[in-house]
Amino acid sequence: MVALPLALASLLRLGSSDEAEAAVALLAASSATRGGRRPLPPTPDCGDDDEPTPAETAGPFFTPNSPRRTSLIEPGLRGTRLVVEGRVVTRGCHPVAGALLDFWQADDRGDYDNVGFRLRGHQFADADGRFRLETIEPGVYPGRTRHIHVRVQAPEGRVLTTQLYFPGEPRNRTDGLFRRDLLLAMADGSSGRFGRFHFVLDS
């Protein structure tokens, strides 16, 4: 699935019909340059009135000092391959070059590695505020829907701790932490799934 080139998180509040239209648009795009796929179309301009990405709880499974890497894929890792792309911008639509993004998540069975750094890693946005993460779709576990944790921080700025969610998940309706404005835009591709999300920092 190729990620829909939405401008900002505030544009991700989609209903079911919108999600279907988004999926069609995404299938016509592509996620990166690997495997001969076409690059994604340009991200539309954002608006100066976009709201900052909302914060969420970090939960009990955060581990500091994760390795720097853009791919969390390791030998023997099971699960559906997933690529997440997007940008980090300010409320004034300026890219946040060098923004820190620290990701962590459960494996396909809903388990976290609390001893090592499996499915954990951090990276820095490029000069245009862009990031790209290679991982797998996380599993569910009691009380939670499918989600990915992330901490985002502008250089010398405040830390935003939040979570990304997946559209169409049955448990979205019962997870007390779920927010529609933290939904990834998703689509399917021949080599896995693709999602897009843009983080808006209040700075």
Write the layout of secondary structure elements.
Blueprint: H1 16-27, E1 81-90, E2 100-104, E3 120-124, E4 130-136, E5 147-153, E6 159-165, E7 185-189, E8 192-196, E9 199-201
Parallel strand pairs: 1-8, 1-9
Antiparallel strand pairs: 1-4, 2-3, 2-5, 5-6, 7-8
Give a short overview:
By secondary structure, the chain is mainly beta. The protein has one helix at residues 16-27, and strands at 81-90, 100-104, 120-124, 130-136, 147-153, 159-165, 185-189, 192-196, 199-201.
Identify the notable features of this structure and list them briefly.
single chain; 203 residues; mainly beta; Protocatechuate 3,4-Dioxygenase, subunit A; 5-stranded mixed sheet; 4-stranded antiparallel sheet; 6% helix; globular
